[in-house]
Specification:
This protein folds into 3 domains: 126 residues, 3-Layer(aba) Sandwich (Rossmann fold); 116 residues, Transcription Regulator spoIIAA, CATH 3.30.750.24; 112 residues, STAS domain (Transcription Regulator spoIIAA, 2-Layer Sandwich), CATH 3.30.750.24. 39% of the residues lie in helices and 25% in strands. The protein contains 13 helices and 16 strands. The strands form 4 sheets. A 5-stranded parallel beta sheet has the order 2-1-3-4-5, with helices on both faces.
């Protein structure tokens, strides 16, 4: 029976030193543990939401998200609050240990590691009775999950104004993970009541400003009052697709409107892919999409092959923003698009004053690298 219990221990190791991770994977497996490993605190959060571990061994010194920041997230997100987190530190400084324990760590282990001692301490921690925990939020009921890229918040109970306020607090406290895609799942929400618009709008805008996205799933218009339906449509830019039958499904067909973005940085150049609409309706999302690239301060290739609609207002806003940015940051910009409408609107908005127009990414990247921005 003891062996059966031990075999159920699912350990997650978060350490940016591959040698340490491999040592723990190979050393703890014979102790009846299934061990997974990730390289930083951000991945520890996503992996734990994908499959909740029995416990986590978390290194303190990691980037882009430190072990202490990840520990803070474990203590605010359901169901991670119940997962024991054991901090690994090579610092051996009293203040680091005190800080970790005050933040909610279950224990700490100092490097270099002793595998036998580490295994014994894990078993000892897991043998303790689980501490009783009250919900952090009085009005918000939810469970978070992840597919490894986005975080889905599966809401439960009525979505009220008070629950929306709690949701805003939760999302703001998840800011160490930004830029982030968050999906609000309404499948188990029977009713929407009160002024949910302002807090949800603030949550959406804070995520978009950081380069992320707030999505809606499980939206069934048949369950909610017209005012709630109108609020959600306005906030999320969605419209129902045509349906057959008398009742809408629990996962109502919908589409995002306006603009989506994805940014990658490699070889001293930034590539920003835009898709959707570049119109007057997408001005705010356009600005939010360009912010992370502005912070990168590198030559920028903007790929617009997936822009399916563009108009004068949208393209004018786009060019004005790039003009001010280029003047301030002094970086080279290239636009990639084979879409005739996009290319025409770009020329009409005098986009050639900001950057060249290219047929593919390789041509644009080569041009930007070979012609540095003139010095001031």
């Amino acid at each position: 029976m003891a062996e059966e219990t031990k075999s159920k221990i699912d350990m997650l190791v978060a350490d940016d030193e591959p040698d340490i991770s491999q040592l723990l994977v190979h050393g703890l497996t014979p102790e009846g543990m299934a061990v997974r490993s990730v390289a930083n605190g951000r991945r520890a959060v996503f992996e734990s939401l994908r499959q909740t571990p029995s416990a986590v061994l978390m290194d303190i010194m990691m980037s882009p998200l430190s072990g202490m920041d990840a520990l803070g997230l474990f203590k605010i997100i359901e169901p991670l609050r119940a997962v024991p987190v054991i901090m690994l530190t090579a610092l051996n400084r009293k203040e680091d240990v005190v800080r970790a324990m005050k933040a909610g760590a279950a224990d700490y282990i100092t490097k270099p590691l002793g595998l036998k001692n580490t295994a014994e301490r894990i078993h000892r921690i897991l043998a303790r009775p689980a501490p009783a925990m009250s919900p952090l939020f009085e009005n918000l009921k939810y469970v978070a999950t992840s597919d490894g890229e986005a975080i889905r918040l599966c809401l439960g109970g009525d979505l009220t104004a008070d629950a929306s306020d709690d949701l805003l607090v939760l999302i703001r406290n998840m800011s160490p993970l930004f830029p982030l895609i968050i999906e609000l799942d309404l499948t188990r929400v029977p009713a929407i009541k009160g002024r949910i618009g302002p807090p949800l709008e603030m949550a959406r805008d804070s995520i978009i400003r950081a380069g992320g996205e707030l999505k809606l799933t499980g939206f069934d218009p048949g369950r909610y009052l017209p005012a709630a339906i109108g609020t959600l449509k306005h906030l999320f830019g969605i419209e129902e697709a045509s349906t057959t039958g008398d009742a809408a499904s629990a996962e109502a067909p919908m589409r995002r409107r306006y603009l989506q973005s994805d940014m990658t940085v490699s070889d001293d150049i930034c590539c920003l892919t835009l898709s959707g609409e570049m119109t007057g309706r997408s001005k705010d999302e356009m600005t939010a999409a360009l912010k992370p690239a502005e912070k990168a301060g590198l030559p920028l290739v903007i790929i617009m092959n997936e822009i399916h609609e563009a108009d004068e207002k949208g393209m004018t806003h786009f060019i004005r923003y790039l003009t001010g940015w280029k003047s301030k940051c002094r970086v080279s910009i290239g636009i990639v698009s084979q879409n005739a409408i996009v290319r025409t609107q770009f020329q009409l908005a005098q986009g050639y004053m900001v950057g060249g127009l290219y047929r593919d990414t390789f041509e644009a990247a080569a041009a930007l690298k070979s012609v540095p921005f003139p010095p001031t």
